[in-house]
């Protein structure tokens, strides 16, 4: 059914944005394809020209499409995923909100030992047990990032018994250990992908990635997770609506 819903809580232009995004994700419009003309979309969806133009402008600003003077609108090669930070949503929830199917390949799931810095940050003893979970995260079978999470084992005993190929870490922490994020802190830096990132994210040299360090705290202020993530910069934009945001100049991996 092509017609939009006039009495929907979403405005007509928002419905049209969602409809076109779905068509692009489902490959009804492939990268490089030209979208139907504004006139054809006004007829097809029974909306005004202004509604169509507004929807196309939002898609263009979000880099789903681009315009060519005198020729029309075309689908971009890679659809940008906005990641708003900080957020209580993990990767799985974020992908589902974007309409993408999340999946993970677990590269490492093991118990390690806290070094001096980890012990200080987490408020635990040096050599206390740390959970290390490293995953390649996918959206619709596209490798989007490599995430490494560090957690003190004392707050999540047995967590590595769960299968994190299809399971959300944050959902597991909430449901099994009653641990939820109260606040978070992020540091972001762009850089060139190394061999590890090139291989796991299916990139060609030279390619840029967004390095993100994050600290997740409970509402009481206890740090329960420290993470390092390499995001593909051709798919991600990082947005922060809050002031607790810090740009660092060097990341030791």
How is this structure best described in words?
With 253 residues, the chain is of the alpha+beta class. The protein folds into two domains: 12-75, Winged helix-like DNA-binding domain superfamily/Winged helix DNA-binding domain (Arc Repressor Mutant, subunit A), CATH 1.10.10.10; 81-247, Chorismate lyase-like (Chorismate lyase), CATH 3.40.1410.10. The chain is 25% helix and 32% strand. The protein has seven helices and eleven strands. The strands form three sheets. A seven-stranded mixed sheet has the order 4-5-6-9-8-7-11. Strands 1-2 form a two-stranded antiparallel sheet. The longest helix is centred in the N-terminal third of the chain and has 14 residues, at 12-25. The radius of gyration is 21 Å and the shape is elongated.
């Amino acid at each position: 059914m092509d017609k939009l819903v006039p009495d929907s809580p979403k405005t007509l232009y928002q419905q049209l944005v969602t409809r076109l995004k779905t068509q692009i994700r489902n490959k009804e419009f492939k990268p490089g394809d030209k979208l139907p003309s504004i006139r054809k979309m006004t007829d097809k969806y029974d909306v005004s020209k202004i509604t169509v133009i507004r929807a196309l402008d939002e898609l263009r600003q979000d880099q789903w499409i681009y315009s060519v003077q005198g020729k029309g609108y075309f689908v971009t090669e890679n659809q940008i995923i906005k990641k708003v930070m900080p957020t209580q949503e993990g990767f799985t929830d974020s992908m589902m909100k974007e309409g993408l199917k999340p999946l993970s390949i677990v590269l490492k799931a093991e118990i390690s030992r806290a070094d001096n810095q980890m012990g200080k940050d987490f408020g635990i003893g040096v050599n206390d047990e740390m959970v290390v979970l490293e995953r390649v995260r996918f959206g619709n079978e596209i490798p989007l990032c490599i995430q490494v999470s560090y957690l003190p084992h004392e707050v999540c005993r047995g967590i590595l018994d769960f299968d994190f190929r299809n399971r959300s870490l944050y959902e597991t922490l909430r449901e099994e250990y009653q641990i939820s994020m109260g606040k978070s802190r992020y540091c972001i830096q762009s850089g060139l992908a190394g061999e590890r990132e090139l291989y796991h994210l299916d990139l060609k040299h030279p390619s840029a990635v967004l390095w993100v360090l994050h600290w997740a705290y409970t509402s009481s202020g206890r740090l329960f997770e420290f993470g390092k993530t390499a995001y593909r910069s051709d798919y991600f934009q990082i947005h922060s609506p809050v002031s607790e945001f810090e740009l660092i100049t060097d990341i030791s991996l």
